[in-house]
What does this fold into?
Amino acid sequence: MSEEKIENKEVTAAAAAETAPKAQEGNQERPARPFGKKRFEARRKVCKFCAEKIDNVDYKNIQLIKSFTMESGKILSRRITGTCAKHQRQITKAIKRDRNLAFLAYCLPKK
It folds into this structure.
């Protein structure tokens, strides 16, 4: 009877060693996540202006420029909008120009 217990312990130890990730071998695939959870993979954002091949952002196109501001009047960052650095600078200039010409508000009035 004691031999059976020893064999069972050896079998369970061998099975645990096979399923446990090995620290020495970093190139092997990681074990599946528990309960089937998958990691969220974010899609890379593409610059809207580069995709449509727009060279210059025009300050007169208020509807387009308004989409790059918050309701409170703040300019949205590149990280949020996905624009490239070149077009983000042009958007910023256009927004500031529109604010100066009173096409866009600097901020919302207080209630």
Observations:
- The mean pLDDT is 80.
- The longest helix spans residues 2-19.
- The CA atoms of residues 56 and 86 lie 10 Å apart.
